[in-house]
Amino acid sequence: MKKSFKLATLTAAMLCSAHAMANEPVYVTGGANMFFFDTDVHNVDNGAIGPWLGLGYQIDKEWAVEVNYNMASTETDTASAVDTDVSLLSVNGVYRYAPVGENSLLAKAGLGQYKLDAGSLGDESKVAIRAGAGYEYFIQPQLSATFFWDLLVSFDSTLIESMPSIGLKYQFGQASSKSTKSAAKTTAPKAPVKPVVVDTDADGVADSADLCANTPTGVRVNSQGCPFDRDADGVYDYLDECPMTPEGAKVTDNGCREQLVETVSIQLYVSFPNNSSVVPAEYHDEIKKVADFMRQYPDSTVTLVGHTDSSGSAAYNQMLSEKRAARVAAYLVNNFGLESERVLSRGEGETNPIADNSTAQGREKNRRVTAEISATATK
């Protein structure tokens, strides 16, 4: 009788609370449970069956807090077989692996007050940890069936019991995602209508921000709506047959390097002071033109040829001409990053004058380094 009164009182309280919070994400739940006792600790019969009730609050799409009251009746495992009431009042956190409104696995953990009342033989009360796992199956948008298997463990580890249960759950308020979606189908949207975004070529960039408005379907684009060009050669990747062209290389319409079919000459003339191999600063820009040309044609090479006037011995002039050519070669490699194997040098001493060595003006013209650039690849 006492147990029935408790259950009726709790049921009435839960219904009143649920009615008062009908527009809140509150739910009521209840069903039947069974207690399996640790017979080494409790001298009672196993398999006690009884009802349970719960009141929950859905915090968000995944988490809820829930108050449960579980009870059952059994008998002591003694000759006199005394009636024994079992009850558990607990507060639990419930986590669901899918949003509210969808069938989902559940996990539960909490604390509870466990009581075993054997009448004249006395009673026992302990604080226990409750933990379990279950599954929720939606019958209707706000009505579902639940299945749980919980484990109870007291803080002094003297109470170890398991408790399977089944039940029904009714969800109030707007917590159910299915009911929310259903309502959305029949209710006019309250949010202001967003302006229509036009994207003619369907590349994900609105026409108002698209700098390449006619991109072919399926071509990947950047934030400006233009196709990617990874090697920055001016040919989009989807048209580029040579997508890894070296930086600065001159390319054809298909993105491949433009190759030379004959020797190409660029006039480099560096004049040196008498008996000097230091590259004069006024010729740095001319040398840079050679470097720029060679970057345009990565297959090209350069041969730097040094010369002298006829002052001094022929052997000395040969050494000086080689040194002048080597200094210009080093300037190209060190200042413009050209590969050393592409920059060759040699000296011709005083053997190839271009002016009269008997005059100062002629000797000045003969103290020089010239360049010849060639490429062997074909288109």
Report on this model:
The protein is of the alpha+beta class and 379 residues long. It folds into three domains: 2-183, Porin, CATH 2.40.160.20; 225-249, no CATH class; 269-374, 2-Layer Sandwich (60s Ribosomal Protein L30, Chain: A). It contains five helices and twelve strands. It has helices at 2-20, 177-186, 284-296, 314-336, 360-366; strands at 26-35, 48-58, 63-75, 83-96, 104-117, 123-140, 143-154, 160-171, 269-271, 301-306, 343-347, 368-374. The strands form two sheets. It has an eight-stranded antiparallel barrel. A four-stranded mixed β-sheet has the order 9-12-10-11. Helix 3 crosses helix 4 (314-336). The protein is elongated. Mean pLDDT is 83; it is low at 175-184. Residues 347-379 are annotated as: Disordered. GO terms for molecular function: calcium ion binding; hydrolase activity; porin activity.
Residue stretches low in confidence (pLDDT < 50, at least 5 long) are 175-184
Q: How widely separated are the two ends?
A: 103 Å
Fraction of residues in H or I helices: 10-25%
Q: Could you tell me the number of beta strands?
A: 12
Q: Classify the secondary structure makeup into a structural class.
A: alpha+beta
- Major sheet strand order: 1-2-3-4-5-6-7-8
Task: Indicate the mean pLDDT.
Answer: 83
Strand content: 25-35%
Along the chain, the helix and strand elements come as HEEEEEEEEHEHEHEHE
Number of helices: 5
Large-scale geometry: elongated
Q: What is the C-level CATH assignment of the largest domain?
A: Mainly Beta
Strand count, sense and closure of the main sheet?
Answer: 8 strands, antiparallel, barrel
CATH architect. name of the largest domain: Beta Barrel
Organism: Catenovulum agarivorans DS-2
GO molecular function: calcium ion binding; hydrolase activity; porin activity
Keywords: Cell outer membrane, Hydrolase, Ion transport, Membrane, Porin, Signal, Transmembrane, Transmembrane beta strand, Transport
Membrane topology: Multi-pass membrane protein
